Amino acid sequence: MEEFALHSGFTFAGSSVRCMSLPMKTTSLIFTATSIFLALSAPTLAQGQVGKIRDKAYNISSQDAEMDAAITKARATLDDFLKIQANPPKGADEFKLKVMFTGGGNSEHIWVTPFQTTKTGFKGTLAGEPRYVTRLSNGQNVTFTRADITDWGYTLNGKQKGSYTVCVMFNHMPAADANRYRRDYGFEC
Questions:
Q1: 117-172, pLDDT tens digit by residue?
Q2: Distance between CA atoms of residues 153 and 95, nearest Å
Q3: What is the mean pLDDT of residues 4-25?
Q4: pTM of the model
């Protein structure tokens, strides 16, 4: 069985994701939408203080049709997102791309922010600690192509836009947790 970790802490397990073309022993789908904001958030709940919801692990089939559709939608709307990122409206920030990285027979999908386009694709900073592609580390500068992108997102006046793969996770977790993520991070899905 292959494992898909939806970072920060989200996990779903199964056999494959249709959008991936490389055969892999272990594949992880890393979702760091919330981790990008956690570094800047209020004190943690573990300290007994009010704060944003912490990441938790959830299991979802790797053949989840909703997740596949979310990745397809993100790829189909990537050009629209890149136009917005190139000329952001007032109140837009936190632009990020989710990118598939491979290594050692593994694959992980990790948010990259900030990022910029290049003549041959994109470059940016890894915004999450890889679990399976150990040649990478949080904060590392990375390069990638359009074909590697599996999601995108940004905030507009405090509300999340895009992040389709994260929205799918809300359908697979307890309603109370999904509602906290929506409230704490401005997700409208």
A1: 999 999 999 998 888 889 999 999 999 999 999 999 999 999 999 999 999 989 98
A2: 6
A3: 32
A4: 0.74
Please state, in angstroms and rounded to a whole number, the distance separating the CA atoms of residues 143 and 125.
9
Q: Can you give the residue ranges of every domain in the chain?
A: 2-185
Contacts of 24 (CB under 8 A, 6+ apart): 2, 102, 105, 106, 107
Q: Are 73 and 148 in contact (CB under 8 A)?
A: no
Residue 84 class from Cβ within 10 Å (0-12 exposed, 13-18 middle, 19+ buried)?
Answer: middle
Residue appearing with tokens 């000329």: 87
Mean pLDDT, rounded, for 2-25: 32
Supply 51's token pair: 């704060």
Q: What is the DSSP letter of 26?
A: E
Contacts 24+ apart (CB under 8 A), 166-170: 166/6, 166/31, 166/33, 166/34, 167/70, 168/64, 168/66, 168/67, 168/70, 169/6, 169/10, 169/31, 169/58, 169/60
